[in-house]
Amino acid sequence: MRKVSEVLYASMVLAHLLLLTAIAHAQPITAETKDAVIAKLRQVVDERAYTSGVDFEKLDQHLAKHKDAIDRTVDARAFSTAVNKALREFEISHLRLLTPMTATNRRTTERIGIGVAARKTDEGLVLQEVVEGGPAETAGLRQGDLVLKIDGEPASSTEPLGGAEGSTVRLTVRRADGDTTEDVVVTRGKFQTRKPETLVITSPGRAVLRIPTFSVGYDTRAIETLFKQIKDEEVQELVLDLRSNGGGRVTNLNHLLSFFLARDTEVGTNISRTLARRYREQTQGDPTDAVAIAKWTKANFRVRAQQANRFTGRVAVLIDRNSASASEIAASALRELRAAPLVGAPSAGAVLVSTHLPLSDGWELQFPLSDYVTIKGVRLEAHKIQPDATVTAPRAKEPASDEAVAKAFELLGTARPQAPLVPPAPPVPAPPAPAAPEREPAMAP
User: Fold this and answer.
1) pLDDT per residue over 176-199, tens digit each?
2) Where a domain ends, among 136, 166, 192?
3) Which of 13, 97, 197, 434 has most Cβ atoms within 10 angstroms of its Cβ?
């Protein structure tokens, strides 16, 4: 089996993932293809999937529950939707079937659509974000607008917003101020989903660094340049904005953490199937207790690099409901190891180490390989990170008028001193312990 890059990826079932993915005409699917995809999916889940306390042997039971819906599908998108409903019966993140189109698009930053991020409400779809320069912005849509109807039908789903390049969609929109309702015609087209990392010096010694993703589009060179600027500008208080960052590659997460933590700093533990089995065999302990396994093992996730421009000042982190996976690991690490205050809204609680594997005919499965526990013993999957200060206002275009940024700087000005930045002490010899896994599970591509 060829090597597959292992990634942390936010597999949140949110509208903006659908809208920032290219949606073309429905792709027909045959019964033979469906059978082949499900057969390979069964094999992969049976042989490789792992999450603490989850019984993947129930896959057939979940598929049987949704068999009628799966059998009725005649196109790729409907088939993936039906299968994913079965997979959601496991009630975990990072387990989903991707159509050939979606599997291809996840490796790029160019999309076709209208370019918005939306959240479903009882009234319709609230636009949480409008891609700069995208079709929706060009048509005059703005963050906070409420889509009431799509082509005359109630806006109960995001799927009708997708379509072929050059086609149009008519939206009935109530403006964010609540005073105006109007129809807006948007022509679907190409747009870029990549958002560049940004640094804004808000005042002498203070700055806001925004990291939009750890996935495709994360630019290591750009980030290294920004941290050099932070050092040159003598920034002492830094707000790290991870709002709406749905996660990405472990290597990119590790790269960012190396600008805040010394090399070899232990950040957390990945609990794999192999590690859980060894724990049971050698301790007779509960193999579903991820926290206990993390305390027992020595195979911890560590910061790999030493950065010349490592930030030595005070840091706060902004999170929201769309901060997931690698973002949650970063936020927790800085809270636990740098005493960084967290500001915003509770995070997604979607933290499993996963990978993507080809199935057949271009289909792909994202599935979890490892659970994750922070260095201070907190399991993050299904446990939303609670901020130290809650700010529900949406991100402002400029940091100077952003309520969460203001609150973060307020906390940085009043909080106790943060943990000193010193390299970890040499390890103290420990009593004989069972052998660690051959490698840290799922931590290297």
Assistant:
1) 888 899 999 999 999 888 889 999
2) 192
3) 97
